[in-house]
Amino acid sequence: MGETLDEFAQKLQEEIFEETRKAYGEAVFQRWLTPRFMGALPNADGKSRVTGKCGDTMEFYLKIANDRVETALFWTDGCGSSTACGSMAAELAHGKTLDELADIDGELILKKLGGLPQEEQHCAYLAAGALQEALRDYFAKQRQKGE
């Protein structure tokens, strides 16, 4: 007796997941499947919207308290690699001082994720760039307030 459509779809999904795990590693796979820190933050102290050369857009939102990142969230319309990189960048930002936040770059994101295929490494730099733009926005707002 042949497979039902549901059984076929389940089997196909499992094969796709296994191939994705092999190609990208467990850390990237998990962040693609269930991204952490994804969403918008109303009344963010710093925010950004950056579109990469690939066409993916990433937004970053920061809430700062006592010169530390209290909350960092991201949003992207991009691929799984962009989602994984945005998730890692937001995780790395939590609890950091503003000076420490400036040190989060694409290389660090790639290292923490265990790497990405060469053709998708730009996603880490997009995430880092969006994070740094949100930090610049925060500083610009502070200058406007005279702080």
Offer a concise description of the structure.
The chain is of the alpha+beta class. 53% of the residues lie in helices and 16% in strands.
What does this entry look like structurally?
By secondary structure, the chain is an alpha+beta fold. It has one domain (26-145): Alpha-Beta Complex (Sufe protein. Chain: A). The chain has six helices and three strands; from the N terminus they run ααβββαααα. The chain has helices spanning 5-24, 26-33, 80-93, 98-101, 106-113, 122-145; strands at residues 46-51, 57-65, 68-76. Strands 1-2-3 form a three-stranded antiparallel β-sheet, with helices on one face. Strand 1 (46-51) and strand 2 form a beta hairpin. The radius of gyration is 18 Å and the shape is elongated. The chain starts with a helix and ends with a helix.
How large a portion of the residues is in β-strands, by DSSP E? 15-25%
- Please report the total strand number as a whole number: 3
Q: How is the quaternary structure best described?
A: single chain
Low-confidence stretches: none
End-to-end separation: 73 Å
Q: How many helical elements?
A: 6
Helix amount, in percent? 40-55%
**Main sheet: strands, sense, barrel:** 3 strands, antiparallel
CATH topology: Sufe protein. Chain: A
Radius of gyration: 18 Å
Mean model confidence by pLDDT: 94
Count up the domains.
1
SS-based structural class? alpha+beta
Overall CATH class: Alpha Beta
Query: Taking strands numbered 1, 2, ... along the chain, how are they ordered across the largest sheet?
Result: 1-2-3
CATH second-level architecture: Alpha-Beta Complex
